[in-house]
Amino acid sequence: MSADRTAVVFDGTVSSLGRVHCGSGRRDSSIEIEAAELMAAVPGAASASTPTPDLPAGEPA
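Now predict its structure.
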């Protein structure tokens, strides 16, 4: 956990994604990084299975 007591949890499937793009909330600022590198860059981060919401049939995931 970080000094401000914020928990960071990556879904258990993230490490197998390869290269990912991460947004910052701004349209002109993002990064491309190996998922494993991203996870390693967050000290104290956890990995866990996260629930998948039940979506109505025909809805995008």
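The radius of gyration is 14 Å.
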